[in-house]
Amino acid sequence: MQRVDTELIMTDGDLINKFLDGPDSPAGVNAFNTLVWRWEKPMYNFILRYLGKRDEARDLTQQVFIKVYRNLARLKDRERFSSWIYQIAANLCRDLIKQKRRRQSYSLETLRESGALEETAHAELTLLPEAALHPDKVVSRNELKDILEKALQEIPEEQRIVVIMKEYHGLKFTEIAEALGVSVNTIKSRMYYGLSALKKILAQWQIDEEAMLYDM
Amino acid sequence: MTCDEIKILMMDFLYNESEPESEKLVRAHLQNCSPCRTEYEALSRTSLTLKAWENEDPRLHHVFVPERQSWFGALKEKLAAPNAPVWGKLAWMSAGMVMGLLFISALLNTEISFTNGNFTYRTSLLPRQAATADSQLVAQVRQELEVKYQQMLLASQQQQRDELNRTLVNFATEVDRQRQIDLMLVGRGLDEFQQHTNSRFQRNDEMLKQFLQTVKLPPPR
Ligand SMILES: [Zn+2]
User: Which pairing describes strands B118-122 and B111-115: parallel, antiparallel, or unpaired?
Assistant: First the structure.
């Protein structure tokens, strides 16, 4: 019990050192699992907000930790673990998006051939959140969550990821830049455009100040 | 400072990451420029709205346990899997042959040595001093493996060398270990046999003594 208690207050860097001292020893395994326990929820929520799919988020969260397990020894600066793990998650998400896009373009081609494209394009336009169709109603916290989920998916990927890292994970602009491998100014400008786009989308969906008075 | 230039600084300001100097600039600009002020207020409201989506609990509770794979399984997987390279399969087959030879020679207490061009082969049913036989055989196995290793190295591609090296070193170490266990078992078997024989001799001796005692002529009166 004593050991578990001290592990809970150890920094990520301490846990990593303990794990790397003996990856197969009970102490090493314990240290790694403490790290997993600590990062599981943030990783899941990060991926969920980025991809918008719960089953994919569960899958990729597991994959993140498998990658961490395999590559941790190569992490030079132990105290930069946070940026590093977000980088792993971001890369996995991007790979999945690319994969899906390849599959999608293929299926679009088959749709175009069969002449069914116009119908689906039309169907997609009506995919507005329920609450947005009833602007007079005050939205509940749950409904607002659904709206935000859909709104985030509407903005460009590269802006979305920055907004998520900033708004939901409180990363500094420098940390986001490090994780995504772009300059800090690019990150700030993506943040600005992402936030502006969300502002517009929410206004379009009539999620204005009045609607924001959700019941707590 | 133009309105466009202020947008980036506004992001620092919104998330409390401004340097003192740029914070002053932003504050001054927002005070004097009403479109920028309106935009800033709208953006900070949007930021606040986003927070309404709270973290969800996935209840994943992953627990990672290191995979416990036997050296044999790991080696087999590496060398003899259906998609293993040809050199891997060859290595696996020759490893099997080396193991077989080792086992038989362990049983027969064979000594093979190849020094300065002289090849000696000796086999007997009695084990020799374990230590010398052991180190000689280990050296021999090492030598054999190294010859094989050299041949395979030449045949394999550059990128496969490191992997093969590691695998063979592990394999040689494991063969050493197995060989030592074999020798230990043979030694132990012989010890037990010796003890058994000794105690039988002792028993026979005692029986003979007893017999001799009983047939001893009574002392002359
Ligand atoms: Zn302005």
Answer: antiparallel
Nearest to A131 by CA among A45, A49, A53, A204: A204
CATH class of A5-92: mainly alpha
User: In terms of Cα–Cα distance, which of A94, A101, A85 is closest to A161?
Assistant: A94
Residue A77 CA to ligand 1 center (angstroms) comes to: 41
Cβ atoms of A148 and B53 within 8 Å: the answer is: yes
Task: Give the SS3 label for residue A77.
Answer: coil
Q: Determine, for residues B60 and A58 on separate chains, whether the beta-carbon distance falls below 8 Å.
A: yes
- What pTM did the predictor assign? 0.61
* ipTM above threshold 0.85: no
Its CATH architecture, for the domain A126-215, is Orthogonal Bundle (1.10)
Q: How big is chain A by its Cα radius of gyration, in Å?
A: 21
The pLDDT tens digits of the residues spanning A141-174 come to: 788 899 999 999 999 999 999 999 999 999 999 9
Assign A187 to helix, strand or coil.
Answer: helix
**Residue B138 CB contacts under 8 Å (≥ 6 apart), including other chains:** B176, B179
CB within 8 Å: B55 and A42: yes
> Is the CB of residue A87 less than 8 Å from the CB of residue A175?
no
